[in-house]
Amino acid sequence: MRHITPERLDELEDLLAGLRGLEGLKEKKRGVFYRKSKAFLHFHEDPAGLFADVRLDGEIFERFGVTTKKERRELLARVRRAL
Question: 2-57 pLDDT, tens per residue?
Fold first, then answer.
């Protein structure tokens, strides 16, 4: 699994827009979000699809699928609750 390419990141613009609107997150590089001074969320891709690694608990990265619109909505809701 590799970090997402800019072309594939374009597919997640709806999710990125939602994340950018959340107070407490800072996008330091396109698709890489920090909470305070700690990495919080970034994206990967592989043949199985698109994935987000997120520290919902603030400590350990968890991986979530974000290939479908439904998966992206669910992730955004989880991030909102975590913040």
Answer: 899 999 999 999 999 999 999 999 999 999 999 999 999 999 999 999 999 999 99
- Model pTM? 0.93
And the tokens for 78? Answer: 């989880």
Q: Taking a C-beta distance cutoff of 8 angstroms, is the pair 51, 63 a contact?
A: yes
> Hunting for tokens 């590089």 — which residue is that?
29
Alpha helices in the chain (DSSP H): 6-9, 13-20, 69-82
Contact 12, 50 (CB under 8 A): yes
Nearest to 51 by CA among 4, 11, 16: 4
Please name every residue paired with 44 in a beta bridge, in sequence order, or none if there are none. Answer: 3, 51
